[in-house]
Design a protein that fits this description.
Number of strands of chain A: 18
Number of helices of chain A: 13
Domain FAD-binding PCMH-type (chains A, B): 39-218
Number of domains of chain A: 4
Family (chains A, B): Belongs to the FAD-binding oxidoreductase/transferase type 4 family.
Cofactor (chains A, B): FAD
Radius of gyration of chain A: 23 Å
CATH topology of the largest domain in chain A: Uridine Diphospho-n-acetylenolpyruvylglucosamine Reductase, domain 3
Organism (chains A, B): Azospirillum rugosum
Protein name (chains A, B): FAD/FMN-containing dehydrogenase
Distance between the termini of chain A: 26 Å
Largest interface: A-B, 104 and 104 residues
Structural class of chain A: alpha+beta
Oligomer: homodimer
């Protein structure tokens, strides 16, 4: 079948309102937010389906013609996972924006894959409940993308990643089969739990069209403090104390190393809540159920941390404004464009107890290779997740060489080359640094079983099994 | 290769201390705790491996000879998932009892698959942390069995099921390949999250040999009340109030229908904490961080529930003894042998808001078919999980006919035929009552990809793809 016939078939199945072909394809579908832009291709067409049946029609056609399919959500990914390949059909989920049901008894929300994260958060809030996933792209990213990348963000410590917030899925397989498992129960052991094949697999095993999300009760109190400590050993002692005394209400434990703290303050152009000169800064947050007694206890724990010589200086937020100020300095650390551009960014994880050593090792190795290297470190330390920015004077930036230095260190510490952003195309080369050859082989076995002709998001995460 | 040669090969690979053959096989390996005993077979041999390498040696040999392999843990399963088939090799994990590491910084424990749940709980407690999975068989069941059945139990509402408490696994595949992914980080998106292929798949896709478990901070307060309400609508109103006011500390919400409450009291032979005549009894528990203020708030919520006309009568536990008394009546509901024997037992889940209707429908349909039918209902309602016991006068008990009545109702309510016990052999026939044909086909695709010759736990969960 010639390309023009294929396009006509697409139009016949979806209708002209839902398909753009060739030169009519909006160029925004060519790339996502990934800075280190992977090489992209020109899509043959972009389809905007309205439901699983239309997705199925597209996949059946593409399967028959072995035409690659790349699913796109809000295009806010940071690993190039939604980058089109030449001649592919892009499935853009942006017309599938229905919130189908909020069940306050079950504590669930059933949505189409194209709803934005923020819309879900707001709908949960309006129903008196909480959808706890939260990340900077909330207004643009779509739930389907959160699912396919297993998104993380700010509240993982307390509520888990996206995977932990999904009860049921509707998925379209590579051959167009629609698998509907819109489970609403917390407990369900009826056979294999198939949803995990599609969460965090970046559109390489199927296309998610609907999801049942798990809602949580709203926390009724928030206590926040910014603490300064001498070194990473004190960070660990503070974490131990917080876990022990806060009894499971600990919801954030964000650590900033001194250099990133200094740069974030400079970028903000006003004094940070605590002075410089300390070994690390920790934003501690607890979400509980009663503000007054919770705040009292939180204060007592801080007091204890002083007495035990763990914390050198601290401020406890007394208002929403102060809380916001603490989070602003933390969030500014993540804006590499303002504090360390042009830099290579990393999103890795390391077992919590060894993150201090890991940071020192990275600093040493970077300095040994590039005496003018600058690097910044901060992260959701209780989750093991560290974000790193590295800049050297070399022009152009030796991205690959820097990658190798950092990922080799990750490998030595049994860490992960991707804590929350996924693998996409950008990190594929480095997957073996944290996953064994046997595990990669098993991923390829699964890929071959679910997508034997390799039409789904080709080139991402793992390569197909070669004959 | 003749059977005797095969056995010799086994002995050569594992050593005589780790293998029992033919008549020397201990008969306890023939069945688990399942009451409705599925037909079992005679194992050719039982192997007691000490590590993944020995498991791998056994699997390579069995794969070469297409010999079935059945993995056994503590043999406490309730769906016949560990029942041997004729001529199989049983892999008993009971010698793999090492706790390899407790990492208090990462909040993890690395164990071999043969450690009992209770040993894990105790080791976590000794380290000042909590391993929250808890169920009646804690002293006998092994972590490997908890993993392969995705065990649930009493604290799912707050901490999730076994799946949510595992960070990494070591698994041996059907061909003997050892896949080691002993991840210790909460955040890790490095490729497909393969562990979910082995959690809750009842030994049909691989053999788990080691696991990294997630430990939680210990809760520092427990508040417990037993409440009497008029009907299921009041149950739902109480649940809404508890979720809203307890801000995520709600840890149990156990509902007993009047008949099961009455029988549990009779079995215990002493007056229950609340009188009869109410429409339902609810055990509410919250785990927080500070006993005195938490108890005060809990009491205020109960007070509010009276004022709003939700709760008709209630007792708030003022001591550990009273708390235990509340749980004793709840736990006695589950002892069908004492309260409704001989009965057919069910472990199903139903969307929370519709459980009341579901119970009424079951009662009506059972009465229509067997006018002398007796049935009891209780469960972890906030999880959607209901346990049912059904007895009729017919002798022998018409198990299959009763199954059909109940599972048809489950199907109509989009529930699950197995909330926490798994499918095994016992519920295989009923899997289509809560899983679509497309989903079952996908399970079979996965099974064929990971175990193409069908040697792993044959006959359990799903049938292999037929040529």
């Amino acid at each position: 079948m010639a390309i023009s016939n294929f396009a006509e078939e697409l139009l016949a199945r979806i209708g002209p309102g839902g398909v753009r072909v060739g030169a009519d394809v909006d160029p925004r579908h060519r790339h996502d937010w990934t800075v280190e832009m992977p090489p992209d291709g020109a899509p043959l067409a972009v389809v905007y389906p309205r439901n699983a049946e239309e997705v199925s029609a597209v996949l059946r056609l593409c399967q028959a013609h072995r035409r690659p399919v790349v699913v796109q959500g809000g295009l806010t990914g940071l690993a190039g996972g939604a980058t089109p390949v030449d001649g592919c059909v892009v499935l853009s989920m942006e017309r599938m924006r229905a919130i189908e049901e909020v069940d306050t008894d079950a504590g669930t929300m059933t949505v189409q894959a194209g709803v934005t994260l923020q819309t879900v958060q707001e709908a949960a809030d309006a129903a008196g409940l909480l959808f706890p996933l939260d990340l900077g792209a909330r207004g643009s990213c779509l739930i389907g993308g959160n699912l396919s990348t297993n998104a993380g963000g700010n509240r993982v410590l307390r509520y888990g990643m996206m995977r932990d917030l999904v009860l049921g899925l509707e998925v379209v397989l590579a051959d167009g089969t629609v698998v509907t498992s819109l489970n609403k129960m917390l407990k369900n052991n009826a056979g294999y739990d198939l949803k995990h094949l599609f969460i965090g697999t970046e559109g390489t095993l199927g296309v998610v069209t609907r999801a049942v999300l798990r809602l949580h009760p709203k926390p009724r109190s928030v206590c926040t403090a910014l603490c300064a400590v001498a070194d990473y050993d004190a960070v660990l002692r503070l974490l131990r104390l917080a876990r022990e005394r806060l009894g499971g209400t600990l919801s954030a434990f964000e650590v900033m190393w001194p250099e990133v703290y200094r740069r974030a303050e400079a970028a903000l152009g006003r004094p940070a809540p605590l002075p410089h000169g300390h070994g690390a800064y920790v934003l501690v947050e607890a979400m509980g159920s009663d503000q007054a007694p919770d705040q009292e206890r939180f204060e007592a724990i801080l007091q204890r941390s002083f007495e035990d010589g763990i914390v050198a200086d601290a401020v406890l937020a007394q208002s929403g404004e102060q809380t916001a100020a603490f989070w602003t300095i933390r969030d500014t650390c993540g804006e590499f464009g303002r504090i360390i551009a042009p830099a290579v960014g990393f999103d890795v994880s390391i077992p919590v107890g060894r993150i201090g050593e890991f940071v020192t090792l990275c600093q040493d190795r970077l300095a040994a290779r590039w005496p003018d290297a600058e690097s910044v470190y901060f992260g959701h330390v209780a989750d093991g997740n560290i974000h790193i920015g590295v800049k050297v004077a070399e022009d152009p930036l030796p991205v690959h060489a820097i990658d190798v230095v950092v990922y080799e260190a990750v490998q030595e510490f049994h860490g992960s080359v991707s804590a929350e952003h996924g693998i996409g195309v950008l990190k594929k080369e480095f997957l073996p640094y944290s996953v064994s050859p046997e595990a990669i082989a098993l991923m390829r076995t699964v890929k071959a079983a679910l997508d034997p002709n390799g039409i789904l998001n080709p080139g991402k995460v793992v390569d197909p099994v070669t004959a």
